[in-house]
Amino acid sequence: MNPTSQETADVNAAIDAELQLLDPAVRASRSLAARLLDPEFVEVGASGRRWTYEEMLAALPDLDGGGVGGEDGPRFEPSGMGGVVLAPGVVHLTYESVIDGRRARRSSLWRRRAGETGWRMYYHQATPVPDGG
User: What is the pTM of this model?
Assistant: First the structure.
């Protein structure tokens, strides 16, 4: 089944928002990051740690890919990003990333609530990719 133009637009909007969250300038700004994370946000990181909305907003400026040690720190290198609309207002994105030589498979759920114009990340999970995998 081919996606509708609205589904394509929704997936593209979620991808744009995901890429914004990978931007060191956004990660360093609590107010910018807060606009992209859902208040009910949860992440299970590649380390297995569970992060809540408040924990993530507090930690983002210092996490890998967020310009650790300033603008010259490790960067996310995303590849193969794509998505699908699961239901109206819910987009599932998947992709791989490399951060400082470490690969991970990533999955994000983005949602847009009724009456809101922007997409917010509701859930994110990163799974390390073993060498050779």
Answer: 0.86
**Tens digit of each residue's pLDDT (9 = 90 or more) over 3-60:** 899 999 999 999 999 999 988 889 889 999 999 999 999 999 888 999 999 999 999 8
Report domain extents, the chain. 5-128
Dmax (CA) of the chain:
46
- Contact, 26 vs 64, CB < 8 A? no
3-state secondary structure (DSSP) of residue 104 = strand
CATH 3.30.450.20 fits 5-128, yes or no: no
pLDDT digits (tens, 9 = 90+) for 48-97: 999 999 999 999 887 754 433 344 555 678 899 999 999 999 999 999 99
Query: At which residue do the structure tokens 């949602």 appear?
Result: 111
Chain centroid to Cα 13, Å, comes to 12
Query: What is the Cα–Cα distance from 40 to 113, expressed in whole angstroms?
Result: 12
